Amino acid sequence: MEKQTLISIYATELPENETDDTSCNDIFHEGTETEYRLAIRAAAEQISGFLKNTNKPFSGIKPAALLAEFDSISLDNPLPDYKSLFAEINDLYIKHATAFHLPEYIAHLNCPVVIPALAAEVIISAINSSQDTYDQSAGGTFIERRLIDWTGQQLGYSSQCDGVFTGGGSQSNLMGLLVARDYYALTYLDHNIKLDGHPATAHKFRIFVSEKAHFSNQKNASLMGLGEQAIIKVATDERFRMDAVKLKLAIQQEIEKGNIPIAIVATAGTTDFGNIDPLTAIAHIAKQHNMWMHVDAAYGCGLLLSEKYRHLLNGIELADSVTIDYHKSFFQPISSSAFLVRNKLHLKIIKHHADYLNPKEQDYDELPAQINKSITQSTRRFDALKLWFTLRLMGKQKLGHYTDKIIDTTEQAACLIEGSHHFELLSHSDLGVLVFRYIPQNSAGTDICAMNLYIKQTMFFNGEVLVASTKVNDRFYLKFTILNPLTTIQHIQNILTIIKKHGKDYEQRCHDTANS
Ligand SMILES: *Cc1c(COP(=O)(O)O)cnc(C)c1O
Question: Does 296 sit in the ligand 1 pocket, CB within 6 Å?
């Protein structure tokens, strides 16, 4: 990456930092509009520099070298002007920031973002509404509610659904498990956990997830005081989806042990394989056993946008609750996520336990308040506005075409990898994740795991291509996560060529060492 000295004319026009502490020149108000506009323009200029000068997804800088840049900085000595501020942040951060928008970034679940959402960010932070109560958000409350209703419609929920924006999928999953647990205790044990804490049998509560479910489920069970022991991992099929027959068996086994199955978390789009658990079959099993069904669609929610592939989520409408991460699959900037319930009365469990089942007892607050729906946040950002801007300007269909493109590119890539004797592919994907590894041509004596780790790290510190990795059956694999409609099959072809080159280099080095 080139050295950037892209400080704009705007930055130099900015007034110097006032020394008079009482002038309130830095507070956003009607008297500082000019300063505000110049600062925002300067920030946008800086971003232009990031776009123009960044041609690799990562600069390749090593942590020690980056950390050393911080040595000379004292937070107690403010900089004289915006010019020096932007220059400093360029060195500390922007120059080395991972560029998710480049096609060669195919590592983690970070999507490129759409421009209307970025425009919304400017408004969100300046007006700074808080979504907890109507008197702190007004129209923000209704924008959020309309987006939740819209998302519910996409899921196939009736108008009885409800939900709330959250900070991310882990938080939404926590809400799912919390409501599931409290609902179970209230309905089947006549016990109010919110008021009275866990019943004596709580240590027997069991939550079923697949082996490939997100780790937030364990963390959440532990946060809830159930312990990770409450999570039962169900084996997966050949595409790493929860095996419904094994789920039934696992539930049976737990019942025989005297434990109490309370919930199933199905994953719609696993982080490692992008595949979707059999939602309809799981919903039937949940119903048979009076268990809550939560669907973690943090990743797979993007399919809601697609006409071509929406059917892959069939059955999601049967779930009691769903996690949606717009910041994973709706091209939204972080944070943007939601938790939805099929029956809005269930969301009330977290507010009014005693009367949650009685609609007549609903509170008729004069002012609507989203805080009643949010467990983990009080003051809450108006993230919903980003999605509003996106849908109002671009529409669902355009986003859906991006999603289709990503899925189609991934399938082409899967065929390329599968068709090459240099690679071993573990599974095709319903979404955009491919787990595979490079296989040496003369594999005798070569540590394939070490070789693939070498390939990944070499590409990372060259900054040329960023891929992720995962372990399956204790073996190290490379992982592509394709979330960018700008990533084409040609890019993938180039990336595979680079992987082969580093693989061959590694083989050569091992060969040379062995012969020396
Ligand atoms: C990313 C992810 C999560 C966690 O979401 P965050 O927004 O990172 O908190 C949960 N589940 C799945 C399947 C995910 O891919």
Answer: yes
